[in-house]
Amino acid sequence: MHQTILNLNAIKNEIKTNNEINERIKIIAVSKNFSINYIKPLLDFGHFHFGENRVQESIEKWQDIKENNKNLKLHFIGKLQTNKVKYILPLFDYIHSLDNLKLAEKIDKLQNKINFRPKIFIQVNIGEEQQKNGVLIKDLENFIKDCKENFDLDIIGLMCIPPNDNEPEKYFKELNRLNKKFNFTDLSMGMSSDYLNAIRYGSTFIRIGSKIFGNRV
Known about the structure:
Number of domains: 1
Shape: globular
Strand content: 15-25%
C-alpha cells in the first residue's frame, strides 16, 4: 500500500480515537507542489478532497482528471486575486479564502455567467496579524451583511490560519463562536500540526499537507 494511503488512514484513526466519529469531517489533502504520481494512489483509494493554492499548477494538474472524475472535489486554499477567478471556476468546488468585497463581486458575476456556484469560506484574520490576509473580527459582521445583501454566494462557514504561537486552541474556540453567531454550518481550520485541536472546536474541513504527502519537494 502506498505511503500516502497509510498516512491518510493513520489520520482517520487518530480522529476516531480522539473524537466522536463525525462523518461531516472532511480531510483535504493539500497537494500543492506534488505531482500526480503522489496523488493518484489516493484517488484510486477513493479519496476525493484535494487542496491547491496556485492557479496555473492546478489547471495543468487537475483539468483532465476533473473532467473524468465527477466525485473529485477541489479546494482553493490560497490567496485568490480577482483576475484569477475566471481560471479557477468551475475547476474548484470550494474557495476557502474570500476576504474582500471585490473578490465577492467577481465570484458572484462569474458564477452566474457559467451557472456554477462554489461553496465558500470567509477567511478571518483571527490573530489580527499584519502579514496575513483575512477579514478582521471587528469588520466581520458588516462584511457578511454586505455579501448577503449584494451577492448570491454560497457561504458555508469561516476559515482561519491561527498565529504560530503554540496556542491554536484559543483561536479555534473564537472562530467556532463566530461561526455559530452567524449560523454557518461548516468550519475550515486545522492543519498537519493542529487538526485534532481544530476538530475539538468544531472544524469540519481540515487541511492536511505534510502529514499525508511528506515534506514538499
